[in-house]
Design goal:
heterodimer; A: globular; B: 17 strands
Chain lengths: ~260, ~375
């Protein structure tokens, strides 16, 4: 019975984790545009992450945590380099724009808390909110694109998952120590920052062009690689919800938080 | 996932039966000052939520001074995928069970369709943890049986002279009910989808006046009483005997929109119980989750976890298929009654039966 169950579960796992058998055709201009835009968003996001981890250094007193933050910043830099390199290999034109409206807003939000030396807030923004979206969206796009680009996205998703897991223990301790005050703090950060990510991933852009995609919004063309904005976004929310569960935040409240995001 | 700060006595793993119920929940949870989420968007988002607790439940026993606390764990199974997507639904139920286990909840019941997904096989759930699970089918079956007996008394019917048709006869609850009624009615008519299973089951009922078919319409003209416990929502019963008594206890409701005249049939929702001491939820989602004629009414499968928690019997009381015995049904009903959990008053989609005083079966005003 146990064997049967584990077989059953591995089948489910395989269904969700195996890259597409046939990679998307980069000969198709529409597909090239979407894949280039995905890589542009990925590079920009990784660079924002790199800057955030570098800023985080200022808020840390613990030496081990300090080294870890520097290591994470380097890891984000490597991810950005990897995405840029694979784009070049395929002749895909990418745009890196840290001034793009959503990424810039996220960076500003992060800096606001970094300037207050609020290490926990910074950790929540970078390692829970941004990494949840990264883990989920790299996985979904990696599975859809396939080939070496898909493989790189999936591999990066796995590495980002480690960042997500890294913060869980620290935040569990915070919850244990501060209880309701921590829940309220998390909620305030959720309203402040997840609103931006919810708008960024919505089907229509409330804040205009993101400043990263080439020309039209790639969300309108995700179907060209067999994805939908709604699915991509819903999966990201799921990963975020699971991260909140793992920290131990009350799901009775976090479900309400998520349902009150811009939809 | 760290354990909950406060200990809980039980959990209910559940799902929504209709999209309209999901829409109501989302509307309730979303701030009214925000733009409402379009129904199509809710349908896209809802299935992606990981199974999780949505509210706390507290229940008081009238037999002792005990108040127990529980969690409602929503599986987020899309209502339109309840029946034909066992593989996807299994994953959701498994994750919900993991949630209960990680929070060290001693006993959880598999409400509604979640036990059907596993076909009652609790071995499929995580068992490397302290949590125990029950399908809740024993109390459901006991409440259906008691409901039929009480309705017969209320309608002046002689059960011993009646022909009983059971739809969903080879399921866990159907089997239990056939064993219960085999010596209490004049004739049994069994209906299920699988003819081979039916034939095998009928053979085991030797000495009993029993016939079987895969088509309920073969039997409806003769049936005095019909118990429907199938996993379908599109059952259409025609050529019914005038005045037939029907207990619809299926998941989802088997006979919704069946279209027969209420004057010609006496239909009640079977397997429902009534908590004399009352139960409440925090936050108060009671009105959107439990739309019954009384806030004290709940499904039998849900109530089984509460009974086991009151009795401090964290055990897989109902498990597998075909294991419910008449004596276990009687024991479960007796335990329930000890804590003020009794059969619900008769009701259906139109509300309470008109010819019934509310306190007839609940001993309450």
């Amino acid at each position: 019975m146990i064997i049967l169950l584990s077989n059953h579960l591995s089948l489910i796992q395989m269904k969700f984790e195996s890259p597409t058998q046939t990679p998307v055709s980069l000969e198709n201009p529409a597909v090239r545009k979407v894949v280039a835009d995905i890589l542009s968003q990925a590079i920009t996001g990784e660079l924002v992450g790199m800057c955030n981890f570098a800023s985080l250094v200022e808020t840390i007193s613990d030496v081990e945590e300090l080294m870890e933050a520097v290591e994470h910043a380097e890891s984000e830099r490597q991810h950005a380099l990897g995405f840029a390199q694979i784009a070049r290999q395929h002749g895909l034109q990418t745009t890196v724009n840290l001034e793009g409206v959503y990424w810039k807003t996220m960076r500003q939000k992060f800096l606001k808390y970094a300037r207050q030396n609020d290490f926990i807030a910074c950790l929540i923004i970078q390692e829970v909110m941004l990494e949840s979206f990264a883990v989920s969206m790299y996985r979904d796009t990696g599975l859809a694109i396939g080939g070496d680009i898909g493989k790189l996205l999936l591999q990066t998703s796995e590495e980002e998952k480690e960042h997500l897991e890294h913060c869980t223990e620290i935040l569990q301790q915070e919850l244990y120590k501060s209880g309701e005050a921590f829940v309220q703090k998390f909620h305030a950060l959720h309203v402040d920052c997840m609103t931006v990510l919810a708008e960024w991933s919505a089907t229509t852009d409330a804040r205009g062009h993101c400043g990263v995609c080439n020309g039209t919004c790639m969300k309108d063309n995700l179907e060209d690689i067999g994805l939908s904005t709604k699915k991509l976004r819903a999966n990201a929310f799921r990963t975020y919800a699971e991260a909140l569960d793992n920290i131990g935040l009350p799901s009775e409240q976090t479900t309400v938080w998520i349902l009150n995001l811009p939809m | 996932m760290p354990p909950l700060a406060q200990p809980y006595d039980f959990a209910i793993i559940g799902h929504q039966e209709k999209w309209e119920d999901v829409f109501s929940i989302v509307r309730q949870l979303r701030d009214s000052s925000l733009a409402p989420i379009a129904e199509e968007d809710i349908k896209d988002l809802y299935p992606f939520f990981p199974p999780r607790s949505l509210f706390d439940i507290s229940v008081s026993s009238t037999g002792s001074s005990q108040t127990i606390r529980g969690k409602y764990i929503e599986t987020f199974i899309p209502p339109d995928l309840l029946i034909h997507h066992p593989r996807e639904n299994f994953g959701k139920v498994y994750q919900a069970a993991l949630w209960a286990g990680k929070h060290r909840i001693p006993i959880s019941t598999l409400g509604g369709f979640t036990s059907i997904v596993l076909e009652g096989d609790l071995q499929l759930l995580p068992h490397d943890q302290e949590a125990r699970f029950t399908t809740g089918n024993t109390l459901t079956a006991a409440l259906i049986a008691r409901g039929v007996e009480d309705a017969c008394r209320l309608l002046n019917r002689d059960l011993a002279q009646s022909t009983l048709l059971v739809i969903g006869a080879t399921g866990d609850i159907g089997t239990a009910l056939i064993h219960y009624f085999r010596n209490r009615v004049a004739a049994l008519q069994l209906v299920a989808r699988n003819k081979k299973k039916l034939a095998l089951f009928s053979e085991r009922l030797n000495g009993c006046n029993c016939s079987f078919s895969t088509n309920p319409l073969d039997f409806t003209p003769e049936a005095d009483i019909i118990i429907s416990v199938a996993s379908t929502s599109d059952l259409e019963l025609t050529r019914l005997k005038k005045g037939v008594l029907i207990a619809d206890a299926g998941y989802p409701k088997n006979l919704n929109g069946a279209g027969f005249s209420q004057k010609d049939v006496h239909l009640f929702y079977g397997g429902m119980g009534y908590v004399k001491g009352g139960y409440c939820s925090t936050p108060d989602y009671h009105p959107i989750f439990y739309k019954f004629p009384s806030p004290k009414i709940a499904h039998g499968c849900v109530l089984e976890a509460m009974v086991l928690a009151f009795e401090k019997r964290a055990e897989p009381y109902s498990s597998g298929r075909g294991n419910i015995t008449v004596s276990r049904m009687q024991e479960m009903l007796a335990m329930a009654e000890k804590h003020g959990i009794v059969p619900a008053p008769f009701f259906n989609e139109s509300g309470l039966w008109p010819n019934q005083l509310f306190n007839d079966r609940c001993d309450e005003k």
